[in-house]
Design goal:
heterodimer, A: alpha/beta, seven-stranded parallel sheet, two-stranded antiparallel ribbon, 9 strands, 31% helix, 19% strand, globular, B: alpha/beta, Rossmann fold, 2 domains, seven-stranded mixed sheet
């Protein structure tokens, strides 16, 4: 699961083409976006990868090899039966979707199988979520703040918990491609 | 840390003692709301929360209000309302009388939005809007039709984006930081508690709106509710869901035809 805010789209545009086309696991992108139901971002991201890419609809089954994008203005959660559910409750960290909410929910379901990756951004969202990922036995990865357009978000995580890996885009792609 | 068994115990209490059945709500969201309430109200442990819910009917009221999500706004998703204006209301306008059901209406912002659309289409006089929710305290807000004045700028922008051409402020009176919507709108709104989990159909409607309610239900409960809507819609009636909700995964999907890109379906059989 990858969370990002300001400056993270550029990273994804470079990262997605580097991912192998047959990922044996699902990828969920939780990005802070402007309030709009504009669904063209999923198409744009999808044009950067051979993996099928789509914006999540409520109760959608989670399929390996698919890249899912959290819809604007909903929190993205994961159910025991490995389906997505959406939630329009209060913003968390001034954000909906909130990266913390999705990381925490995914950590409960996937436990040690989860990798949480935090990209560029200018707020504190994601750090609490990465803590939950670690508590559940999963791994926490952040973009190297030196390579981030907005270093605050990955830097904030680095100063608040033990991060497993700090990567630039190329290293991140190699790491994701090596996961099984 | 609250585990699944704790949640199950609490949900059983709620059903046994008060008749509220949350067992088929979307578990991930429900659990998050309960954990949030537990920390908001500073319970030292989950057991204290459970005890309070069991022993204090006043607190039950707060629990239901906080655990259900009551975030809503006027003219949310303007493109949706534009589509209702342009494609649904002209068809409904051919009927002598129009019944609309807002199921899970929360504090009623969407009900008033619809009443404004009906008024602008000259249909309000022969329409009735049924506004239901399981939560009596939000219905009190629907009845009053009073919303924070600070939100009116945003609502006005959404209203215009939905194709509204009037002065939005002509629909309310501003006082003490509140906007009170016209009685002409509220007197067409019929309010009642109705629990989608357990209550049955109570009328036949031309249009049912249930936007961003089903996301809080699991698939089985969604199917129950969609069957209920199916049974409550007249022939060629319309069903409107939230922008990320779909009939795609449900059993009734072949009885409906999606109108366009917006989440509006027409009942075809």
């Amino acid at each position: 699961m990858i969370g990002g805010s300001a400056g993270s789209l550029e990273v994804l545009f470079r990262l997605l083409p580097l991912l192998r086309p047959d990922l044996p696991f699902p990828v969920a992108l939780v990005l802070h976006r402007r309030n709009s139901s504009d669904s063209s971002l999923a198409e744009l991201l999808g044009s950067k990868t051979l993996n099928p890419t789509q914006e999540v609809e409520d109760k959608e089954p989670i399929t390996p090899g698919t890249i899912y994008l959290a819809p604007a203005d909903y929190h993205l959660l994961i159910e025991q039966d490995r389906t997505f559910s959406l939630d329009y409750s209060e913003k968390i960290n001034f954000s909906r979707p909130s990266i913390d909410v999705s990381f925490e929910s995914a950590a409960e379901i996937y436990g040690p199988g989860l990798v949480g990756i935090l990209l560029s951004g200018a707020n504190e969202d994601g750090t609490g979520g990465l803590m939950a990922v670690k508590r559940a036995g999963g791994r926490a990865v952040v973009q190297n703040p030196d390579t981030a357009q907005m270093p605050f978000m990955p830097h904030y995580a680095l100063t608040h918990l033990a991060i497993d890996h700090v990567f630039d885009t190329i290293q991140m792609a190699a790491f994701i491609n090596s996961l099984v | 840390m609250i585990d699944e068994e704790d949640i199950d115990l609490l949900l059983n209490d709620l059903f046994d003692l008060y008749g509220y059945d949350f067992t088929r709500y979307s578990r991930a969201s429900l659990k998050r709301r309960i954990v949030r309430l537990c920390s908001l109200d500073k319970f030292p442990s989950f057991a204290e929360l459970r005890y309070r819910v069991r022993s204090d009917p006043q607190y039950l009221k707060r629990f239901v209000e906080e655990v259900t999500v009551n975030v809503t706004e006027m003219f949310r998703d303007p493109a949706f309302y534009k589509s209702v204006r342009e494609e649904v209301l002209p068809v409904l306008g051919t009927k002598p009388f129009i019944r609309i059901w807002h199921a899970g209406c929360s504090t009623g912002e969407e009900v008033y939005s619809m009443a404004i659309l009906l008024k602008e289409a000259n249909l309000l006089r022969r329409s009735l809007l049924y506004a239901t929710d399981l939560n009596p305290s939000v219905l009190e807000k629907v009845r009053k039709g009073i919303f924070p004045l600070a939100l009116m700028k945003q609502y006005s922008e959404s209203y215009i984006a939905s194709g509204g051409t009037h002065d939005f402020s002509s629909y309310y009176t501003a006082q003490y930081g509140q906007a009170k919507f016209d009685n002409e709108l509220s007197e067409k709104i019929i309010i009642s508690t109705h629990n989608l989990v357990s209550d049955s159909s109570f009328n036949e409607f031309d249009l049912i709106l249930c936007r961003n309610v089903l996301i809080y239900f699991d698939k089985d409960l969604q199917d129950r509710v969609l069957n209920l809507f199916d049974a409550s819609l007249g022939t060629l009636g319309y069903l409107a869901l939230g922008t990320k909700e779909t009939l795609k995964f449900s059993a009734v999907h072949n009885k409906f035809k999606q109108l366009n890109r917006e989440k509006i379906w027409k009942k075809i059989m």
